[in-house]
């Protein structure tokens, strides 16, 4: 009754109050269904509390919502568990739906096929990673079948609040949320970005911050490119010199670095809390100069190469004709698999120009079997295509021409695809000729170009069902700091996120551009060093 009285009083007061500064549809990625109700705005008040279903993972989402709201509002925002779904509260997170069991959260790991997340549930109660967000004067209620769905709903709620919600210190603000109903679910189960920590090394804090940016836009995978010619970035107990010797270099001659098992676990845990799955990549058989430096026995001539701090590719490789190489591959992949809770293990496979024909396919086929023996699913760059198919394997396509018969044939043999078209999704490409860092071998990628393609119809002779999702790689030959990472990712990352999450029918450049403009003040508040692309009418 007290709740009702408060709601009634608030409604009367709000007749005189200004409308919400954000419209219900002003969300990136665009939700599947939005039904605004301008008479039903909600105002977050000092006494706001979060009520959440009694489930550890849901409770953690509620805790993160409270952490999001406290700094800017200065409100205490207590969190209480309630078993009764009907309890009215100010902010309610309800775990309920077609698959509210513990196994349901596993479906969010994207091991399911692309079509599995669609159509598995009633339209207004999406399963999997979907959610339903209902804003009325009395409450904001998010309902989802999994904690991942609740988490994505919380990201939507965050964007519906005024941009000053991103302030790290209290702001005097009317914390209004636009009224109405959003029903939402992802188009593709795999939505990600890659960070190359090999060309330049980035410490744990930088990686965690990148995970924050992914989570904000409902991206659910972070691929770490952990090894390359210029550095080996993950400690391996059975081959310790990989990190201590192979990790001590980077492009340009800087100090390099590597993650201990504890560092890596910290990244895994931080990501998991944000419903982001880590995808570790050990690039084989090429891109291995740092490994050869540490263990010359792996080199074809058994001679240690010079440390490499340049930016050429394609010159190094582990010896595919030596059995010791396969001990190395099994030991490394075994340790990395054991550290990684997610289902994926990426074995690279790109640009091994000096391992040709059957030497290459033979090596890859053995490496694929080694991955399968760890219980993980093989991911590799699309150069893997000519090697024999292995159950479940996923190819990451980075071409610039959508007519790729070799990849189409691999798909017919059963491969699924992650799409990273070089000329749309390679965020190491410059925005414009005067962009101070970055490449241009795949062309310039302004925000519009990063947005203007359809993952469901990009590759000739590849059906949409074979597309697991999309990923934006950030190679770091020219990227040396967190500020430069943010400059290259933002504002293009939200464009990729919308292609990955939103239904095809929602894609609309003009609408996207206008919604994106509202994110500038949010990033400013959060201290994010984004690129003020001239294409966007920044607010
Ligand atoms: C190609 S794409 C590479 C990387 C480079 C990148 C630079 C791919 C699988 N390999 O080794 O860093 O181009 O854009």
Radius of gyration: 24 Å
The chain-level mean pLDDT equals: 93
Biggest β-sheet strands, sense, barrel: 8 strands, parallel, barrel
**General shape:** elongated
The ligands bound in this entry are: ligand TNX
Whole-number total of structural domains: 2
Number of helices: 17
Structural class, from secondary structure content? alpha/beta
| Strand order, sheet with most strands | 10-11-14-15-16-17-18-19
Please give the number of β-strands.
Answer: 19
CATH architecture of the largest domain: Alpha-Beta Barrel
Q: What name goes with the CATH superfamily of the largest domain? A: Glycosidases
Strand content: 15-25%
Oligomeric grouping of the chains: single chain
Distance, first to last CA: 41 Å
CATH class of the largest domain: Alpha Beta
Q: Could you name the ranges where pLDDT drops below 50 across 5 or more consecutive residues?
A: 99-122
- Work out the helicity level: 25-40%
Named CATH topology of the largest domain:
TIM Barrel
Domain Glycoside hydrolase family 20 catalytic: 188-354, 361-503
EC number: 3.2.1.52
Organism: Micromonospora inositola
Pfam family, one: Glyco_hydro_20b
How does this model look, in words?
The chain is α/β, with parallel strands linked by helices and 539 residues long. It has two domains: 2-184, 2-Layer Sandwich (Chitobiase, domain 2), CATH 3.30.379.10; 190-374 and 417-505, Alpha-Beta Barrel (TIM Barrel). Helix content is 32%, strand content 16%. The chain is built from 17 helices and 19 strands. The protein has helices at residues 2-14, 56-73, 102-107, 147-160, 204-216, 241-244, 261-273, 289-294, 323-339, 357-373, 405-412, 422-425, 447-451, 482-489, 492-501, 509-517, 519-526; strands spanning 33-36, 42-43, 50-52, 79-81, 91-95, 131-135, 140-144, 176-177, 180-184, 190-196, 221-225, 227-228, 231-232, 277-284, 344-348, 377-381, 394-397, 416-419, 467-474. Strand 10 (190-196), helix 5 and strand 11 form a beta-alpha-beta unit. Helix 2 packs parallel to helix 4 (147-160), helix 5 runs parallel beside helix 7 and helix 9 packs parallel to helix 10. Bound molecules: ligand TNX. The site of ligand TNX has 10 residues, from loops.
């Amino acid at each position: 009754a007290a709740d009702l009285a408060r709601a009634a009083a608030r409604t009367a007061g709000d007749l005189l109050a200004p409308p919400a500064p954000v419209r219900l549809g002003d969300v990136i990625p665009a939700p599947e269904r939005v039904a605004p109700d301008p008479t039903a705005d909600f105002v977050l008040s000092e006494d706001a509390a979060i009520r959440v279903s009694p489930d550890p993972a849901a409770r953690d989402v509620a805790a993160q919502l409270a952490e999001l709201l406290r700094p800017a509002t200065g409100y205490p925002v207590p969190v209480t568990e309630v078993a009764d779904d009907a309890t009215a509260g100010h902010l309610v997170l309800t775990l309920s739906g077609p698959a509210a069991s513990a196994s349901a959260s596993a479906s969010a790991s994207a091991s399911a096929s692309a079509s599995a997340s669609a159509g598995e549930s009633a339209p207004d109660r999406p399963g999997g990673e979907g959610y339903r967000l209902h804003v009325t004067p009395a409450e904001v209620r998010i309902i989802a079948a999994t904690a991942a769905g609740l988490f994505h709903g919380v990201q939507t709620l965050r964007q519906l609040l005024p941009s000053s919600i991103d302030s790290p210190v209290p702001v005097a603000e009317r914390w209004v949320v636009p009224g109405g109903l959003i029903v939402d679910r992802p188009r593709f189960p795999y939505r990600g970005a890659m960070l190359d920590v090999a060309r330049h090394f980035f410490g744990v804090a930088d990686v965690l911050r990148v995970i924050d940016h992914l989570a904000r836009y409902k991206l659910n995978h972070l691929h770490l490119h952990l090894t390359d010619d210029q550095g080996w970035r993950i400690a391996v107990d059975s081959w310790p010199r990989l990190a201590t010797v192979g990790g001590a270099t980077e492009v340009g001659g800087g100090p390099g670095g590597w993650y201990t098992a504890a560092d890596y676990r910290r990244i895994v845990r931080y990501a998991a809390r944000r419903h982001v799955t880590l995808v570790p990549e050990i690039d084989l058989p090429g891109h291995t100069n740092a490994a050869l430096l540490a263990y010359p026995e792996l080199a074809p001539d058994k001679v240690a190469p010079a440390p490499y701090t340049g930016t050429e590719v394609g010159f190094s490789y582990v010896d595919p004709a030596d059995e010791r190489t396969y001990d190395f591959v099994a030991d490394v992949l075994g340790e990395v698999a054991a550290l990684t809770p997610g289902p994926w293990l990426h074995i690279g496979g790109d640009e091994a120009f000096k391992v040709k024909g059957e030497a290459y396919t033979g090596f890859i086929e053995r490496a694929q079997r080694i991955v399968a023996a760890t219980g993980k699913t093989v991911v590799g760059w699309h150069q893997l295509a000519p090697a024999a198919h292995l159950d479940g394997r996923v190819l990451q396509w980075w071409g610039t021409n959508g007519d790729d018969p070799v990849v189409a044939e691999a798909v017919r043999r059963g491969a699924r695809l992650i799409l990273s078209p070089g000329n749309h999704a390679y965020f190491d490409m410059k925005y414009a000729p005067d962009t101070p860092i970055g490449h241009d071998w795949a062309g310039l990628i302004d925000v519009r170009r990063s947005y203007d393609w359809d993952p469901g119809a990009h590759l000739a002779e590849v059906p949409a069902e074979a597309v697991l999702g999309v990923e934006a790689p950030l190679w770091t030959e020219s990227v040396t700091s967190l500020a430069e990472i943010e400059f290259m990712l933002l504002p293009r990352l939200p464009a990729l996120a919308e292609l990955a999450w939103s239904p095809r029918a929602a894609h609309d450049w003009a609408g996207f551009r206008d919604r994106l403009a509202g994110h500038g003040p949010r990033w400013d508040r959060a201290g994010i060093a984004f690129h003020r692309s001239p294409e966007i009418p920044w607010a």
